[in-house]
Specification:
Elements: H1 2-27, H2 29-50, H3 54-67, H4 73-85, H5 89-102, H6 107-119, H7 123-136, H8 141-153, H9 157-168, H10 174-186, H11 190-197, H12 205-222, E1 225-235, E2 240-252, E3 255-267, E4 272-287, E5 290-301, E6 306-318, E7 321-331, H13 336-341, E8 344-355, E9 360-371, E10 376-389, E11 394-406, E12 418-432, E13 436-451, E14 454-472, E15 475-484, E16 496-506
Antiparallel strand pairs: 1-2, 1-16, 2-3, 3-4, 4-5, 5-6, 6-7, 7-8, 8-9, 9-10, 10-11, 11-12, 12-13, 13-14, 14-15, 15-16
Amino acid sequence: MRIFWLSSILICFILFNFCQDKVFADAIPIEDKNKELSLQHKATGDEWFKKGDMERAATEYIEALKFYKTYEQEDLITMATRISWGGKLNEAEEILIDVLKKDPQNRRANLQLARVISWQGRQIKALSIVEEILKKDSTDEEALLVKANALRFIGRPDKALEIYDQILAKREDFDVRLGKAYAYANLRIPSKLEENAKILKPIYPYQEKDIKDLEAYRKSLFNPSVLAVFSYFHDTDQNEVYTYRLSFETYFKNLRISGNYFYRKGLDDFRKAYSDELNFEIGKRLINSVWSYVNLGVYQNKGEKSFFTGGGGLNLLFGKGITGISFNKSVITDTAELMKNNIKVLTVNYFLEQVITDHLSLYTNYNHRWYSDDNQSNFFQASFRYKIKFANPMLSFGYRVVYLDFKKQMRNGYFDPDNFWSNQLFLTVYYETPKIYLYLEPFIGNQTFTRYDVSSNDKAYGGTGTVGIKLKQNLSLEVSLEGGNYAAGTASGWKYYQTGLLLKYVF
């Protein structure tokens, strides 16, 4: 009996120790196992990175950080940098923000965060980050490069060029030279783009891809191109207009030369009208911040005398955007009646477009028109756009106010109201892939005006939509549709729709 009890106690003791060891064996290594899994994913990510596959490397680094996050700060910044190179910008931003919560002054993390934010389209925030870095060291070349690129992305390539040149005066750098080439592309100065592209000497595989991308961009902008365009217009007054257009665009040195031929056929219940129009335009960058252009054309309503058309303008890069002034003489061709009436219009137009914050932008324009039937008009428009989503698809909404007022009502076939006001809310959606893009902008609001002493107060609605398809590397197709009851949307001023088809070939 004594032996039995001793044996039982010994067995219980052994079982207790076994179970205790088992519990600790199962519980303690969980963190170690997660860390081991994390290190495995990180190692796999390092291998993909060495092979140049940034997307797979980014995926592995993201998986690694799901299991274990307590890496050294420098390792976290390195992974975040590589994750951003793999296109996972939101994930990279989150990692860098976590690093900066612990070390707000970490230069490397701040610099990479500025890059990531800039690549997402938030240039104002990126500029604010690099400005803080440059306050400590105004010669920090990496921060200067981020600043230059952000200025270029925001629409100020002229200012970006000053910084690129400041860096290149000290040393040659591939990324700086690449940015400078793109800045000249944005400014439409092909000779300077080519001059800088020839200096680029790739060392790494990704740099070879950068050069190919630059060359593709250069061809899309500066190679000769031809366009064939068709549109059909219809409104509830039974106006129909068929428009056929052939266009070309090319560059001679730094001169942009374009030409357009229009053939229009207008129909309604009482008449038919046909017109031809030919015009040419020449544009040139005068200085880095100023673009100038002039155009000259001739218009003829079939069977009647011809009219000269044309104009010109200047666009100035200003603030965080662009402003400009132009004048133009044209003939109203929106309907058959207007084509028959041969009403000519001289227009002086001013516009301003500015980025206020990363989310908010402003566009406004004013024009005054003199009509050949002794009428005049004032037109003003202002819109605020708030960007909700920066990533693909981009999404924004906005508010637009429109004012239009004519000297008198002429009964010559065009919409000539007194004190036309329209307030509109609009939504903009833009989605893009390598082969297709989609643009949609519906709106809704109200419109009030007086015409022939009769007041109107109505809802306003409508929108535009465009689908573009890249059929081949140098051939693209675009289909568009717009319409609504917006009275100031066309010269005839009534419910309408218009469809369009554009085919573009780049040589």
